Amino acid sequence: MKNKLTLLSLVVLLAFSTISAQITGAGTTLPANSETGVSILPSFSWDSGGPFIIEIATSSSFGGTIVFTTASTSSPYQLTAANKLNNNTFYYWRFQGGTGYNEIKTVNAAKPTINPIYPGVTSAYVGWYPVPYSSGLKYDLVCSTTSDMLTPIVTSGSTGLTNTYYTITGLAQSTNYWVQVRTTNSTGTVIISYSDVYGPFQVASPPVPTPSYPTDNTADGDVYANPPTLFWYIEGNEPSLTYEVEVKEFSPTNVAFDGTTGIEITAAGKTFKRLSGTPPLPLTAGRTYKWRVRSVADPTHKSGWSTPDAKFKIYSNVATSAIIPTPSWPVGTTAPTVYQNPPTLYWYLGSDKTGLYYQVQYDTQADFLSGSAVTYPADGSFTTNLFLALPTALIPGTTYYWRVRSDLDNSAAGASGWSSNGSFVVASTASGGAATPIPSWPVGGAIMDGPMANITLSWTAVSTQPLSFKVRIATSSSVDGTGTLNHGSAVENSYVASTTSANAQSVFGSLTAGTTYYWQVKSKLTADPPLVESPWSMVASFSTAAGASSVVPLIVSPNFLQPLNNTVAVLTWNIPVQSESPLKYDLQYSKNSNFSNAVTVPNLNNPSALVSGLETNSTYYWRVLSKTNTGSISSYSTTGTFKTNAATSVEERNTIPADFELAQNYPNPFNPTTRINFSIPQNSFVSLRIYDILGREVKTLIDRQMTAGSHSVEWNADNNLGGKVSTGMYIYRITAGSPSSGSEHGFVATKKMSFIK
Fold first, then answer.
1. Which of 364-378, 413-427, 740-754 is least confident?
2. Percent of the chain with pLDDT over 70
3. C-alpha distances in angstroms, 730 versus 36, 311, 508, 692, 754?
4. What is the DSSP letter of 318?
């Protein structure tokens, strides 16, 4: 009985002891007495009373072990990072002068350990790992410019991380930074541990770029685009960098950049730049230029200039003497029929020369001795175009002959001889009982400004009987053997009686700004039950005003299966109406009429382009579109066609090159395909491979025995597995021949090229 009383007394004493340990007089308090797993940054709260002075200690006696003391007038009170508690530790807290205390124990959690930091130019990669390893945690990364972490930098997305790494962006050069990682529970509501503070560290200096195109290894030193686009690359990925490029004319006595002359430009966020701005561009044809580039992190932190200076030469295609042109259309052993009246005459040069002026003559006599020959332009001057739309309608059913000549200075003093004759027959307007209408407006490519819904087509027709009319409209002047517009876009309306006009939009549907339309009209006898129709009229044309929109280009030359005697072609086109916006052009050419496997040459500044590396004995199709910098993109033009001819003699066909040679790929930079030409003077085993800039093989193009001669191979930016490679610099390397060819492995050569998506 005595033992039972003693045990009961002990229980009662323990109960009184527990009660006396709890805080009293403030209602419910949190963290509660005996609570475990408390955050190292707890929030203290109570239901009533106050203000209080809160004390936290590691001893229940609160003697000499005070961790934190503060006055708080309202509940709750949140502990801050400057006074965070330790993990896995017993603490006691109370209101100073109050009764009792609450005993709590902080959470026992893994502590983050920060790995070495990898700084970029304006960023830093931070990684860490928890010790001991724990899963299901979240992390907050704090970056500060002071080691006490009291001036944190706000970085979006740096809190609530479930992975153990993060890239801090927007860092400044020459600034010290410190980082710290804190761990929270899986819901992010309880902070349970802090890493040690890591630092200081600074971001890396801006990297020195490497010029990639054009450089000294450009084929023949020539660049055809004027103004050119300069390309470079850096090690790593630093999208926040900008770049400064300096270009200067190169000569043996003037080779130094002095910081005050030359062309200084900036290129933000990309590793290429089309030259533009001041001084006026394009550059001077035939001149050699050098250029260099540096990267910029901010106005006071720039990399060194790239070295050595890259050089290039602007291709010179300015004619030094007048060249006799060749008529392109209309021509033929039998004069072809033309259905546009007045017609447009086209011609071309047998070379890629520019800077010439042209003059056209036409007559009804092939010898031009009738005394009625007409010369255009009518004032005796010359045109710079490779085409001329005659301003006056010709006589239907009549055969005409025409010729063209060129001149250097628009004066006729140094004009070339006249070309060979072209010829054509103007389609007859004869009809079988119904009068053939004559288009009266709009004609001759007239530019129609104002609302497109109000464009009215008008014509005339003389007949003693009532007539009905219908109109046909297309976006191409192509016609069949009867003179009917036959392009896939052609649309016609039904016959309408007793009217000599029609609304263009009601026939064709919605018209597009900056587009050329071709139209014709025909008639039938209204009262005659059997259908008595006239032929279709001559084709007239008009263009809709572009405003600030893109414009559908018109193909000029080469066209109509024009034959070329080499594997280089100068493709030219025309803009029928000016846009208020600056235009760029995308050119496509292919050996397939549906443009499969087409080569695309993007972002041309001028309405002409030189293409090379064409295959002999081939028919090519080409087209072009225009686009503005605001995103307006026109439809493609109609398709132009030309042929390349093979060599005409046995000696030329059998010519064997004297030396091994590897040419620069073309186009370069390229997308989606490029062509590599090489020559071998003897039968030999040839290996041609593509490598990335780290020296890893990407693609084997050739690895076999080949016969002596000139060869060509195309690469479509794929790798050995059939996938597409990424944008960047690549190296192609050829080995061929025997050791006597120039090295222990025979002929070996490498060149660089750039692929751009």
1. 740-754
2. 83
3. 61, 19, 49, 5, 6
4. B
Torsion region of 603: left, alpha or beta (phi above 0 gives left; psi -120 to 50 gives alpha): left
**Distance between start and end Cα atoms, the chain:** 95
Tokens of 196: 């040690």
Tell me: do 510 and 584 sit in the same domain: no
User: At which of 375, 394, 426 does a domain end?
Assistant: 426
pLDDT in tens, 431-444: 556 788 888 888 88
675 and 717 inside one domain = yes
9 is a domain residue = no
| Overall number of domains in the chain | 7
- Mean pLDDT score, 247-262: 61
Please report which helix (H) or strand (E) contains residue 314, including its range: strand 310-314
Task: List b or e across 232-267, with b for residues whose CB sees 16 or more CB atoms inside 10 angstroms.
Answer: bbbeeebebbbbbbbbbebeeeeeebeeeebbebeb
Give the pLDDT score at 270.
52
The CATH number for 734's domain is 2.60.40.4070
Over the stretch 619-648, which tens digit does the pLDDT of each residue have? 899 999 999 888 899 999 989 888 887 533
Mark whether 420 and 344 lie in a shared domain.
Answer: yes
Neighbour-count burial of 754, counting CB atoms closer than 10 A to its CB (0-12 exposed, 13-18 middle, 19+ buried): buried
Are 28 and 70 in the same domain? Answer: yes
In a domain, 2, yes or no: no
In order of 29, 40, 77, 87, 142, the CA distances from 81 in angstroms are: 22, 9, 13, 13, 11
Question: Does residue 634 share a domain with residue 539?
Answer: no
Q: What CATH number corresponds to the domain at position 268?
A: 2.60.40.10
Residues 6+ positions from 143 with CB-CB distance below 8 Å: 152, 153, 155, 158, 168, 177, 178, 179
SS in 3 state form for 542-579? EEECCCCCCCCCEEEECCCCEEECCCCEEEEEECCCCC
DSSP 8-state assignment for residue 453: G
- Residue 692: which of 666, 644, 728 has the closest Cα? 728
Does residue 191 share a domain with residue 280?
Answer: no
Q: Are 710 and 675 in contact (CB under 8 A)?
A: no
Q: Which domain holds residue 469?
A: 438-544
Q: Is 417 helix (H, G, I), strand (E, B) or coil?
A: coil
The answer on 534 and 482 residing in a single domain is yes
**Model-level pTM?**
0.44
In-domain check, residue 320:
no
How many angstroms from the chain centroid is the CA of residue 464? Answer: 62
Query: Residue 410 corresponds to which tokens in the numbers above?
Result: 């628009």
| Residue type at 148 in one-letter notation | D
Q: Report the number of secondary-structure helices (H) and strands (E) in the chain.
A: 3, 58
Question: How sure is the predictor about 429, in pLDDT bands with cuts at 50, 70 and 90?
Answer: low
CATH number at residue 90: 2.60.40
Under the banding of pLDDT at 50, 70 and 90, the label for residue 530 is low
Encode pLDDT of 446-486 as tens digits: 888 878 888 999 988 877 778 899 999 999 888 887 889 98
Does residue 509 sit within a domain? yes
Domain boundary among 426, 461, 480: 426
